[in-house]
Amino acid sequence: MSWRFSDRLVLAAAWVTGLALCAIAGAIVLYMGYRGIQYIRPSLILSRPQPSTTQAGSGGFLDPLLGTIVLTLIGIALALPLALCAAVWIVEYGRPSWLARVVESSIEIVAGTPDIVIAIFGLAVFQMQLLAPFSFTSEDGGVYGRSFIAAGAMMSLLALPPLYAATRDGLQAVPRHMREAAYALGKTRVTTIRRVLLPNVRSNIATGMTLGISRIIGSTAIVLILLGSTLRIETQGSFPGIDLLRGTGSTLTSYIYENSPAGEGGAPQKAYAAAFLLLIFVLGLNLLVDRISSSSLFSSV
Amino acid sequence: MHFIADKFDGEYETSVPPVRTIVLDRPPEPVRPPEQREALRPVRDTAGLERLRLEDVSVSYGGASSLGRRGANAVRSVSLAIHQGEVLALIGPSGCGKTTLLRTLNRLTELTPGARREGRILLDGEDIHDLVDTELRSRVAMVFQQPNPFPMSIFDNVAFALREQGRKKPGRRELEPQVIDALRRAGLYDEVREDLGRPALRLSGGQQQRLCIARAIAPRPEVLLMDEPCSALDPISTGVIEDLIGELRHELAVVIVTHNLAQAHRVADKVAFMYLGDLVEYGAARDVFEDPRAQRTREYVRGAFG
User: Are B251 and B222 within 8 A, CB to CB?
Assistant: First the structure.
């Protein structure tokens, strides 16, 4: 054989690394699957958590599950338009160039900020008197600053950078002749962006959305600090919808933390069950985005 | 190659994909030599309606007004007229301003920062500077060098050209006759009629270029600009498109930029020879090719430089 020894060594290392990663991923899925199936019950998913002194009476995690879903929806709903606008502006306009550089590095700073820092910052912002309507105010006038909308707004900062980067890369990869084709048909810039460029990068947007959603689902710090850490979803006010946004609650991540031996609770079984559900969420999301990105390469009639 | 295969137990053989999947528009048939095609083309003497008139058109890129300096202009003082029913070929060596001149005609040069135009271009007697650029571009359509259909269905590619800006109306049903008509005029309909919902990017290169032509002529433009429309295509697809150009000139004025002298010979009624931004010679194709007045033209047409 003509392979040099060092080459063989590197090849072997590559094999080992690849197989090890497969083994680690497999171990996580198998272990969580084993634990999850062992402990998960439909009643856990369908029942609300109860304040109780015994584990048998403390209910399930319906509220944290809904909390995760609501928080993800709020975060993505806020991040998506911002990220798309920023990416379109950077790629299609991007002038003056110093402003483009500032925008680019601002987003990089947001991307590099740990979520605990974003959470503290968010708390400071939402405790301002000006933003009092977004959470509840105590009798002595203190603004609580913790609510679904506060947590969701900070979550959108987590989702924005990957969403922005994916969209920007997609737009930059659209060849120039595609834009010229639209302009040469007498289309305006706005039409070209809406009807040619954005549909063209749908798979990139979908990829960015998964990355963003998995960051939101996985973040614990923002939930612990900004969502009020009530086990149940507690609404504030009486206007349906708005009361939820102003309310407090928890998510699967905070539920797992609180119930695991690391937190205060002593219900590792429920923590495993919730973790299993979380894992299924993320895997399902990946599967979904794979399908979206492979089918939306060509739009239908 | 044999000893390599022995040495590596055939690993190299399996790693090379077979090069057999060449898709053509239609079964291969021998391409007729240029002379023969040229002889088949009817000589046209009747000039149709004047569509475009260029008066002293100069274009420069970059910086402040540099029209006075020699060499700074991509196009210098070009004046000519383009008539309905004829094909005008812009020929000349690379970088002589052909494409710039072509892109000036539908104001696509304005997308390039720093591009300046002087002189007047009249479309049916109207200065194109007074037209809204989007309206101008639907009246002066363009086909590019690289086939560039949108990653949509065949139908949507043509429908996009017909709809007003970003509207979704008129709907599929109302547009269908116009879309089919455009595809038919571009000679593509018979090949795609079974499934107009197919993604345009799955067509072959030649079909894609004809789809781009269908898209361009769908809104019934008065002038069709073509920037080396065949340079990315195989000879058979080129032949199909050249025949199509011959058909299209009856309904609109065609301006084609080409590097390929044989192609200019085959399709053009009028020829404009450009060199370093100057219009050196302009006249009937036969005159320019067979009895050029300028020395430069003579050398270029004979293949002496370029």
Answer: no
